Amino acid sequence: MNKKIYLFIIFFLISGCSLNKNSEFWTSSKKIVLEKGFDEVLKDKDVIKKEFNSNIKLKLKKVFNVNSNKSLLLNNPGRSNFDSELKKISKYKFSKINNYHQYEPEILFNENRVIFFENKGTILQFDENSKLIWKKNYYTKTEKKLNPILQFANNDKYMVIADNIAKIYLLDLKSGNLVWSKYNIAPFNSQIKIYKDKFFVIDFSNTLRCYSLKDGNELWNIKTENALIRSQKKLSMVIYQDKIYFNNSIGDITAVDINIGDILWQLPTQSSEIYGSAFSLETSEIVSDGKSLFFSNNKNEFFSVDMKSGNFRWKNNINANVRPITIDKLLFTVSIDGYLIILEKDTGNIIRITDVFDKFKLKKRPKINPTGFIIGSNKIYLSTNNGRLLIIDLSDGRTESVLKIDNEKISSPLIIEKSLFVTKDNSVIKLN
Questions:
Q1: CB 122 within 8 A of CB 107
Q2: Tens of pLDDT along 107-144?
Q3: How close are the terminal C-alpha atoms of the chain, in Å?
Q4: Is 330 in contact with 12 (CB distance < 8 Å)?
Q5: pLDDT tens, 14-50?
Q6: Would 374 be classed as within a structural domain?
Q7: CA 318 – CA 333 distance, rounded (Å)
Q8: CATH no. for residue 226?
Q9: Strand stretches in 95-226, DSSP E
Q10: Which of 16, 44, 91, 245 is the most exposed, fewest CB within 10 Å of its CB?
């Protein structure tokens, strides 16, 4: 964002006007109608930099996500009943992964066991004490030289693997033994979703593929865009009521009937001007509450889309490429430049903006970006590409402390029971 745009924003904040019809930047002269569960503490003071309503304290009801499978299908972790000082650190170590920082690998959990992969595509399963249970590699010598990057998904019995060299395969979760393996015509670059007896994954040709979990045979596929553009972010999917919703590398959203593979609707989200810079487009994961889809990108766009009709519900000017989180009537995200933003889910109206990068030196801030966040009972845990984990007070949006994990990128945090996990290049980090 250039200086002119910054000046534009500051002008409208001072004048009390709205940047767009959805932003509705309130001033102290306008009464803020807050739903039950909020404490209004807005004072008569100027907005500092890009902060807005920074004196509003948030008080959430005691509502936590307990249906992990549903939250997984909707890509929405919600709010977990987690509250820890994060003083103890343990590691699950493995060899370094070539080009790790270009990808967004996720950890797989099986009860109290941790599953990840290392260089050359070797898959490892650890127990809760970091002891290795099994170690498997199903790649040929030629394939190992390609340094496969793996994506995981699992149910109670099996785990599906898809990689960036066009291979998919199924392992027995308990033993790690190979059940079947298949090859695709193009590499994969998306989440994997398992639903009943099928699983879904998107390849680099922007094709959604539906496979049989039993034998890996392809049941149907849908190609959304005949383009060679590879997404700079891992593509995502949402599954709800036998329908799957997914994005492609140029930002289009498609809804499909899972049972027969028919397209229900398609929605372009980018203008012709954006198409020209599609190589730099970085979209967030799609998140759903069962009624709407929420996602954003690094082109200063945040969308809400009606799942039934495929129509836009609202659009706001927020520059963010990390997965948003919705809790009750609220929507949370963190901008690329380090501002925690809370919106009304149904309207897109901004409630509060706070600077969570304020503890970083000004010279270093332009190089620091969030990689993801998770919300606990009273804290927000935010990871960065410079290896830091920020602990943020949920009520006032202020960063309480910064924990150094590494000097380079760490993954988006994940909360499992009483522990928080992140990955870095050569280990999974467990914080209690």
A1: no
A2: 999 888 999 999 899 999 999 888 999 999 999 999 99
A3: 38
A4: no
A5: 333 333 334 333 333 333 333 343 333 333 334 445 8
A6: no
A7: 9
A8: 2.130.10.10
A9: 108-110, 113-117, 123-126, 132-136, 150-154, 158-163, 167-172, 178-183, 193-195, 198-202, 207-212, 218-223
A10: 44
